[in-house]
Design a protein that fits this description.
The chain is mainly α and 85 residues long. It contains three helices and no strands.
């Protein structure tokens, strides 16, 4: 019959070998998901994007009014939520 030794009989401490695999997985996922957005952002041309959006905002007065209304409603909702909390 197979004898299984409980971790509590070893003084209540888990051996380090149990933590190696989860630690390696955590480090791998942190590095992968941390580097992927950085590498993607390096290829993004921010100046060109800002110039393009500035041109489109200057030509659309209806869009400006809608954006202002959305910002006002967002601020009003934030104030109501802060007061209610």
């Amino acid at each position: 019959m197979l004898q299984v030794q409980s971790w509590s009989t070893r003084g209540g401490k888990l051996p380090f070998s149990f933590a190696k695999v989860p630690l390696a997985i955590a480090v791998f996922t942190a590095v992968t998901f941390g580097l992927a957005p950085m590498l993607q952002a390096r290829r993004f041309d921010l100046a060109h994007s800002l110039k393009q959006s500035a041109r489109s905002l200057a030509t659309a007065p209806g869009t400006r009014r809608l954006r202002s209304a959305l910002i006002c409603s967002e601020v009003a909702l934030a104030v109501v939520l802060l007061i209610g909390a």
